[in-house]
Amino acid sequence: MFNFTLRPRRNKSAETAKERLQILLAHERADGESPDYLPMLQKEILEVIQRHLAVNQDHVEIKIDRERDISALEINIEIPGPAAKA
Amino acid sequence: MFNFTLRPRRNKSAETAKERLQILLAHERADGESPDYLPMLQKEILEVIQRHLAVNQDHVEIKIDRERDISALEINIEIPGPAAKA
């Protein structure tokens, strides 16, 4: 069972200039043998995001979890907020 | 607070030939005025998926939720499993 909660930032002021983008991809397969699409989707979805947002690779965190029928991929990206860019 | 749980299918046998892809995008903004990236990301991420998977629009479910600082987009896609394609 995959559970994903977007935790609001504890210390609002210190991180006010930053924004967060969180992406969860979960693929529930019919049986354990069918292909796992997540690696390919991960690469192309990151490319989509990088086309539109200034993404610093140091601020990209990727977690992958695989069970028999389900694979899940969590991507956390910290992006400079409007104040940070000005 | 956004909470997203991938619920395993109740009746495994009836839906064995189908697979599910679930995508959650959550954008936590620095302040309520910064742009909302989700509509643009939704379009392009669906295009990525459709490039690689046979997606029937009738089997795509999209939920959007907006609060002051956080927007969340949930995309649920039922895709034909290997047995269904053969």
TrEMBL record, chains A, B:
The keyword Cell division is assigned to this record: yes
SUPFAM superfamilies per the UniProt record, alphabetical: Cell division protein MinE topological specificity domain
Keywords (A to Z) from UniProt: Cell cycle, Cell division
GO biological process: cell division; regulation of division septum assembly
Similarity remark: Belongs to the MinE family.
Functional summary from the UniProt entry: Prevents the cell division inhibition by proteins MinC and MinD at internal division sites while permitting inhibition at polar sites. This ensures cell division at the proper site by restricting the formation of a division septum at the midpoint of the long axis of the cell.
Name of this chain's protein: Cell division topological specificity factor
